[in-house]
Amino acid sequence: MKFESNLFIETAGMEWEQVAPGMKRKFMGYNDEIMMVQVHFDKGGIGARHKHRHSQTTYVVNGKFEVTIGNETKILSGGDGFYIPPEIEHGALCLEEGMLIDVFSPIREDFMAGISGYTK
């Protein structure tokens, strides 16, 4: 392993990383092969359409989101989830303030620039 997170992650004292207007995240655990990220959205927050080489699965903790994967769009709420295959364009619009848990494989190295000690 090039790098990995602590075994236990306690979020109470952890700072949020602001990634876009209305969207912030905390890293919940990772190594070279997998990464879990907690993402908070304010109402109206946008996860801009993009694609990446990673497999992604996401759990909707709470709130309401309009999620687009490829050419298909669904409204998802707390308890729902979705899967995004590699290289498929996707994005989300937060309709009601909420939280997502994203899991990526392999790790999103582009997210890691702000993590102390992380090297490629």
CATH architecture: Sandwich
Count of alpha/pi helices: 0
Number of domain units: 1
Question: Which CATH class applies here?
Answer: Mainly Beta
Keywords:
mainly beta, eight-stranded antiparallel beta sheet, 8 strands, about 55% strand
Question: Overview of this structure, please?
Answer:
The chain has 120 residues and is an all-beta fold. The chain has a single domain, classed as Jelly Rolls (Sandwich), CATH 2.60.120.10. The protein has no helices and 8 strands. The protein has strands at residues 17-20, 23-30, 35-41, 46-50, 55-69, 72-77, 81-84, 90-105. Strands 1, 2, 3, 4, 5, 6, 7 and 8 form an 8-stranded antiparallel sheet that branches. Strand 2 (23-30) and strand 3 form a beta hairpin. The model has no long low-confidence stretch (mean pLDDT 92).
Briefly, what is this?
This protein is mainly β and 120 residues long. It is 0% helix and 54% strand.
SSE inventory with pairings:
Blueprint (H helix, E strand, L loop, with lengths): L16 E4 L2 E8 L4 E7 L4 E5 L4 E15 L2 E6 L3 E4 L5 E16 L15
Antiparallel strand pairs: 1-2, 2-3, 3-8, 4-8, 5-6, 5-7, 5-8
